[in-house]
């Protein structure tokens, strides 16, 4: 038996004890952080619920104030329009602006126009693509090209054109 064999047992015992202490310390820290995050989440949820009720009370107050001089249905309609405009403005504020390029801007998409593409006809997006290529024959313009307002089809061998999915 070598003289260091009994120290090997002590080293293993020390490593196991240190690992146990480290696990307990990490577990306690994670438990404390989780408790703080859970409390913060509950406060945010309560704040959101109260804000929802406050918004409903405000909408009711606006509707009742408008109902003093208008028919009830008109007051409700105007209140709904005001809420719709407010929702649209908030939605616009939540989207990234042109000064802060986001992932959509890096991909070549215009912010606020996610549905632009072939066939959508959205201004500022890609021009619309006709469903079928123009017919060959004397229908074309004076120079023998496509008729005015018709977009000629792109050659299929362009590498930067993604395949069109219908």
3D architecture notes:
By secondary structure, the chain is mainly α. Helices cover 54% and strands 0% of the residues. The protein is built from three helices and no strands. Helix 1 (5-67) runs antiparallel to helix 2 (72-94). The longest helix has 63 residues, at 5-67. The chain is flat. The chain starts with a helix and ends in a 60-residue tail after the last helix. The model has no long low-confidence stretch (mean pLDDT 75).
Concise account of the structure shown:
This protein is mainly alpha-helical and 166 residues long.
Shape: flat
The mean pLDDT is 75
Radius of gyration: 33 Å
Number of strands: 0
Task: Compute the number of helices.
Answer: 3
Kindly state the percentage of residues in helix. 40-55%
Strand content: under 5%
Distance between the termini: 79 Å
Question: Major sheet: size, sense and barrel closure?
Answer: none
Give a topology summary.
Elements: H1 5-67, H2 72-94, H3 103-106
Helix pairs in contact: 1-2
Fill in the keyword field for this structure.
single chain; 166 residues; mainly alpha; 3 helices; 0% strand; flat
């Amino acid at each position: 038996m070598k003289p260091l064999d009994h120290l090997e047992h002590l080293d293993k015992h020390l490593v196991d004890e240190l690992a146990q202490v480290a696990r307990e310390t990490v577990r306690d820290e994670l438990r404390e952080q989780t408790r703080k995050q859970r409390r913060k989440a509950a406060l945010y949820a309560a704040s959101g619920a109260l804000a929802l009720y406050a918004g409903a009370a405000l909408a009711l107050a606006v509707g009742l104030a408008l109902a003093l001089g208008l028919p009830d249905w008109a007051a409700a309609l105007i209140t709904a329009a005001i809420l719709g405009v407010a929702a649209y403005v908030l939605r616009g504020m939540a989207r990234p602006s042109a000064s802060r390029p986001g992932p959509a801007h890096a991909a070549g998409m215009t912010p606020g126009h996610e549905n632009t593409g072939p066939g959508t006809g959205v201004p500022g997006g890609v021009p619309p693509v006709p469903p079928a290529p123009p017919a060959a024959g004397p229908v074309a313009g004076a120079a023998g090209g496509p008729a005015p307002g018709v977009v000629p089809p792109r050659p299929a061998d362009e590498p930067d054109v993604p395949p069109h999915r219908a």
